[in-house]
């Protein structure tokens, strides 16, 4: 607070030094508090309005005392709060303003001196002084001239300004005047003109002087007004500071009271914390004592660890030394043990594999025995893989709709979302091979050499792989070729004891007509089916004795050339007929003379198809209708056999007449049902699988050997 008082005192002393105290005193006459400041600064008694009365003096003293009290209060407030920064800043600003006024006054005084001519004699002031001197000189010359002209008696020139008025002399008349000398009128006129010019210049200088004086007075008045405004602002700021200081003091008191209350409330917490600290100190002491015990134990352990480390180092060196000599021996021994164990393991695997195959064969033997005893038609389902066109189309109709949940099961979903699961004697998925298929067929084929009648036929929609399964291409033969190869192989191996005579025929049923595909005049003759002592047969059908598989393959190639095929929307080379390859075997035992007759029918049925989907027209349409008629008749025969009907409609088609032996007793019959894996053919797939399911339920009765004893025909 002392610093504030010093700043105010410095300001007022500055006003006195700048000789602007009088206007400040005039302003102080209207503000008692400012007057007190002025008195404090000058050490004088302020006179308000020039002559202060006793009452005014008393009022002034009271104001001064109030100011001192206020200063004390502010000082105590600032000392307690420490917030006098704002007051210091304001007073510094006021001090800067006073310095600015001092500089401005100096400029005004310099301007006034310049307007008045200054002490140096320069400017308009110096010129005016010169003119005044010239005027005085001219006045003196005029007076001398007038006096001289008066003496000479030649008229008088007008008296100069300030000259006494002319008239009769007041005193007694003197002697008569002497004659005056003649006056030079041109010279007088020249002097008058010079006088007029000087007078004009004098008037102009006076006007400039008055103008500068007025400007100086205006500047002085403006300066006085600014000083009064500054003092008024200072008074207002002091009042505001007083109010804000009181407010800050009150707030500080409130904060102190709140802090006291908060401190009082925390005394209990402090005591509790002190107790906790004491407890922790005790616990710490206990820990220190326990740590000392642990440290001693650790030192002992360190000693033991060092001893163990040295012992370990010795053991390590010993082990390394022994490893150099013992490890190769151990490795060699271990390798031999592993080799022996591996050999035993592989042998056990082989034994298990052999046992597994034996079990599978036994299971199949028993299953086939049951099937033979019951005489059921065995059904194998085979699904062809999707074609490249189907895989690349991206069409929903080409989506795969077939699954194989378990062994012997197939599941299909049609376009309507219907789903069904079928179970058959064997199921071959899209990845099955020709070898895998024939492996399951082989036991039936070999039974022909024992005198049994066997029939294997493929049924299904056009384009599902029936011909591929039965015939197969030259590079991947199907059931027909593989069966004949096995028959000739077995016959060759037993020829020392049994003599086999093998005869082959190949025919087709085309538009319900029989065509002999091995005849020289194919299609020129008509054939019928007749009943004989050994079953139904076709009179005059070409029968060819064969001694090797090569001969059979040549016959099959000839038959394939004569077979009826055509292009449809479903298949590029669709079979338009049912192909039947028959193999008749008469076996004679060389020792006993016993004769057995076996018959093998390998049948590739024409494809079932919807006329609208196949796109058949004209002759192809007639072919499709006849194919469907014969397949429908086959379905009726299967249904009648399944229901146990006394009448079996074999005579409804040429195909069923030829298959009568195979679909009756004393025959082993196997059906391949071939299906497509794509959604587009799902409806036909459902029909084929349902037909195969019904066929599997047909019981033909136990098959018997066709054996003729020696000496009987």
Write structural notes for this entry.
ATP binds at residues 460-467. Pfam families: Kinesin. One of its GO terms (cellular component) is microtubule. Helices cover 58% and strands 13% of the residues. With 713 residues, the chain is α+β, with helices and mostly antiparallel strands. The chain has a domain at 375-708: Kinesin motor domain (Kinesin), CATH 3.40.850.10. The strands form four sheets. Strands 1, 5, 6, 7, 8, 11, 14, 15, 16 and 17 form a ten-stranded mixed sheet that branches. It has a three-stranded antiparallel sheet with strand order 2-3-4, with helices on one face.
Blueprint (SSEs and pairs):
Elements: H1 2-17, H2 21-28, H3 32-42, H4 54-81, H5 85-116, H6 123-152, H7 185-374, E1 378-383, H8 388-393, E2 402-403, E3 409-413, E4 419-423, E5 426-428, H9 434-446, E6 453-460, H10 466-470, H11 479-493, E7 498-510, E8 513-516, E9 530-532, E10 535-537, E11 544-546, H12 549-562, E12 565-566, E13 574-575, E14 578-589, E15 595-604, H13 611-614, H14 619-643, H15 654-658, E16 667-675, H16 682-696, E17 707-708
Q: How does the major sheet shape up? A: 10 strands, mixed
Instruction: Please estimate the helix content.
Output: 55-70%
CATH hierarchy: architecture of the domain at 375-708: 3-Layer(aba) Sandwich
Question: How would you sum up the global shape?
Answer: elongated
- Cα-atom radius of gyration: 74 Å
Intertermini distance: 155 Å
Mean pLDDT: 76
- Give the class from helix and strand content and strand pairing: alpha+beta
Residue fraction in strands: 5-15%
Report the CATH superfamily of the domain at 375-708: Kinesin motor domain
pLDDT < 50 runs, ≥5 residues: 40-51, 118-123, 152-181, 566-574
- The CATH topology of the domain at 375-708 is what? Kinesin
What count of helical segments does DSSP give?
16
CATH hierarchy class name of the domain at 375-708:
Alpha Beta
Number of strands: 17
